[in-house]
Amino acid sequence: MAPGAQRGDTAPDRTGRQESPEERADRRWSDLLQEVRVAQTGSQVLFGFLLSVVFMPRFAQLEQFDRNLYVVTVVLGALATGSLAAPVSYHRLFAGRRLKPQLVQAAARLVAIGLVLLALTIGSALLLLLREATSAAAAAWITGVVMVYFGVCWLLLPVFHLLRHNGRERRPPPG
Question: How confident is residue 9, by pLDDT bands cut at 50, 70 and 90?
Answer without folding.
Answer: very low
